[in-house]
């Protein structure tokens, strides 16, 4: 029993499996040649446009200087209380950590890239 139907060739003779395989390969290459570029083009069209580097939000310079001053004040307070023992040191250390977290949040909003890493090594 013949499982592969024979397709006639140009001269009317049966071509056999070879011609079917050849037609399949040609159709596959044509399909890939049409689908891959179309898919790539659709992916490019669907991608969001590149946005230019945005400027700093308003009042960033003031916010950064305020945050820096707050951190410096709390650091001085912790250094001043370092010689003493008791709950005052713990409270001052917690407040210092809170100021660092606030300053880091301000830096995350106002600075980006290498400028952020150089200014706030937190």
Low-confidence residue ranges: none
Cα(first) to Cα(last) distance is: 78 Å
| pLDDT averaged residue by residue | 79
The Cα radius of gyration reads: 35 Å
Sum up the overall morphology in one term: elongated
Count of discrete alpha- or pi-helical segments spanning 4 or more residues? 4
Helix content: 55-70%
User: How is the biggest beta sheet arranged?
Assistant: none
How would you classify the helix and strand content by structural class? Answer: mainly alpha
Query: DSSP strand (E) fraction?
Result: under 5%
Topology, number of strands: 0
Number of domains: 2
Element string (H = helix, E = strand): HHHH
Explain this structure to me?
By secondary structure, the chain is mainly α. The chain contains four helices and no strands. It has two domains: 1-50; 60-119, no CATH class. It is elongated and about 95 Å long.
List keywords for this structure.
mainly alpha; 4 helices; 122 residues
């Amino acid at each position: 029993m013949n499982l592969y139907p024979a397709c006639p060739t140009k001269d009317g003779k049966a071509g056999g499996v070879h011609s079917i395989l050849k037609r399949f390969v040609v159709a596959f290459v044509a399909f890939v040649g049409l689908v891959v570029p179309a898919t790539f083009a659709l992916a490019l069209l669907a991608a969001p446009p590149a946005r230019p580097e945005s400027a700093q939000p308003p009042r960033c310079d003031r916010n950064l200087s305020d945050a820096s001053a707050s951190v410096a004040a709390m650091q001085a307070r912790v250094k001043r209380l370092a010689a003493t023992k008791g709950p005052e040191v713990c409270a001052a250390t917690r407040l210092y950590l809170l100021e660092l977290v606030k300053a880091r949040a301000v830096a995350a909003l106002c600075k980006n890239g290498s400028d952020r890493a150089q200014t706030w090594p937190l």
